[in-house]
Write a structure and sequence with these properties.
Layout: H1 4-24, E1 28-30, E2 37-41, H2 59-71, E3 75-78, H3 91-96, H4 98-105, E4 114-117, H5 128-139, E5 145-146, E6 148-155, E7 158-166, H6 173-177, H7 179-197, H8 208-227, E8 232-236, H9 257-269, H10 273-291, E9 294-300, E10 304-306, E11 317-323, E12 326-332, E13 353-358, H11 359-367, E14 373-379
Parallel strand pairs: 1-6, 2-3, 3-4, 4-5, 7-8, 8-10
Antiparallel strand pairs: 2-11, 6-7, 9-14, 11-12, 12-13
Helix pairs in contact: 1-8, 9-10
């Protein structure tokens, strides 16, 4: 049971998301799950290319991903905070990343299309005049930047379900209600510090308590709509934390500690130092994973998905795909050497998929009222 303070926060977020949902109702699209091919990225925070630029490490991974999606005919959704306009003037990131913008714009002519949304850090794009003045020249023509988009998904013999795409900052005090004050602080206090140190942090991604609370608030909003049988799935960004339905990452790729210890002793006895070394490496991974386990966010019903971001400090990017009747969480690595290859030497694109689920099953689950829950689970080696 959430405390009074968190209940108040959830109510604040509910009102913000309700408003965005209603405004998006003016233009509802129909989605055909069998033919849809959509990839969703968010929270690039593209800056001026200096140490205050959170995207600079991720450009390689991001453009690699776009090249693949472009040739596959995907429609590209940029779900907000694409440019970092709290720190920079519009022309700084737009000029620095003109080649990336040109690649994104190619989705308008050769791919499945380009859709842009505005978030709190690029809320200037909520002003059509600013879009025409600054952004349109870089994307090759007229462009509408949305706050939110509702997609109606027909379901045979059942009530239609809805996918709702929105950045996810709506209703927050520091990002929505006090956005102007927050922007001044980031530009005049935080940016000089970041340029000197290169430290990467954006609220709420740097604040684990707030991040978890905000994720729970967005889940509560969507679960509330599912609870009344509306069948709404929220797809957001903002927190920089990937969330994928009710699934969780695979356990660490290690065997039980006791099994590994026995195997190491056997390898030593046989004089096989190479095998003993490989087993010891796996053992130490298992021990570390037990001391410092990964954590997965589990939600039920699966009504809230989060893209993660394109500004991770290690240069990786994460996003969501809706294609082939599935919804998928994907990761593209910063270093191409990490990407597996197929037998013919090409990139193994299947390796990008971290988690997947049938879209029809997800929509069926959110259309059937159930008890809502969200929790963090520790992922540890077997037998730990």
């Amino acid at each position: 049971m959430a405390g009074a303070e968190e209940q108040e926060y959830r109510e604040q977020i509910r009102k913000g998301l309700d408003g965005a949902f209603e405004r998006a109702g003016r233009d509802v699209e129909r989605l055909d799950p069998a033919n849809a091919r959509i990839v969703v990225f968010s929270d690039h925070h593209r800056g001026a290319g200096d140490q205050a630029d959170d995207f600079r490490r991720c450009e390689h991974a991001y453009t690699t991903a776009l090249g693949w999606y472009l040739e596959q005919g995907y429609r590209l959704f940029l779900l907000g905070d694409t440019e970092e306009l709290w720190e920079e003037r519009p022309e700084q990131p737009l000029t620095r990343y003109r080649d990336v913008l040109a690649l994104e714009a190619e989705f308008r002519t050769r791919g499945g299309g380009l859709e842009r949304f505005w978030g709190n850090h690029d809320d200037a794009w909520g002003d059509a005049g600013q879009v025409r003045k600054h952004l349109q020249p870089h994307v090759g023509g007229p462009l509408t930047v949305r706050e939110g988009l509702r997609m109606r998904v027909p379901r045979a013999g059942r009530e239609d379900a809805t996918l709702f795409f929105v950045h996810g900052h709506q209703g927050t005090t520091e990002s929505d209600k006090l956005g102007r004050v927050s922007r001044l602080f980031v530009r005049h206090v935080w940016r000089p510090i970041q340029r000197k140190t290169g430290y990467s942090a954006t609220t709420p991604a740097s604040d684990h308590v707030l991040r978890a609370k905000h994720g729970r608030a967005m889940f509560a909003w969507s679960a509330g709509r599912a609870g009344i049988g509306s069948g709404t799935v929220l797809i957001a960004g903002h927190t920089h934390q990937p969330v994928f339905a009710g699934s969780q990452p695979d356990p660490p790729p290690t065997r039980p500690v006791a099994e590994l210890r026995g195997a190491i002793e056997a390898a030593r006895a046989a004089g096989d130092a190479a095998k003993a070394g490989a087993l010891r490496a796996e053992l130490e991974y298992a021990r570390t994973a037990t001391r410092r386990p990964d954590r997965a966010t589990v939600v039920q019903p699966p009504c809230y998905f989060n893209t993660g971001c394109c500004s991770f400090p290690d240069g990786d990017v994460t996003g969501l795909e809706i294609a082939d009747g599935e919804i998928r969480l994907v990761r593209w690595p910063a270093n191409l050497r990490e990407a597996p290859r197929t037998a013919d030497g090409n990139l193994d694109a299947e390796a990008r998929i971290l988690a997947r689920a049938s879209l029809d099953e997800v929509l069926g689950a959110v259309s059937a009222p159930s008890d809502a829950r969200i929790e963090q689970r520790e992922i540890v080696p077997p037998g730990a």
